[in-house]
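Quick one: structure for this chain?
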Amino acid sequence: LAIALAGTSALLVCFVIMVLFTASLLGMNFSQLIAVLFIITMMLLITALSFFLLEVFFATSLMRSGLAKTEKIIHSHPPNAPKKQ
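Got it. Here's what it folds into:
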């Protein structure tokens, strides 16, 4: 989801730039449209980065819990010690 939102945000940035140049070439005022598109773009980017941080947090916490379980298994079965005679 984070990647999709970031990609959409990047596309909207491109669209905002296109509208800026088109408005300049045509001598038209698209300032309200540009402002709204820019606000939407920033909202998408903020949401994308928030989801990305959540995904990283969940992934690292799952890795830590898996590592803790693995360490418990390893420490509960010590390596074979040489037999005393």
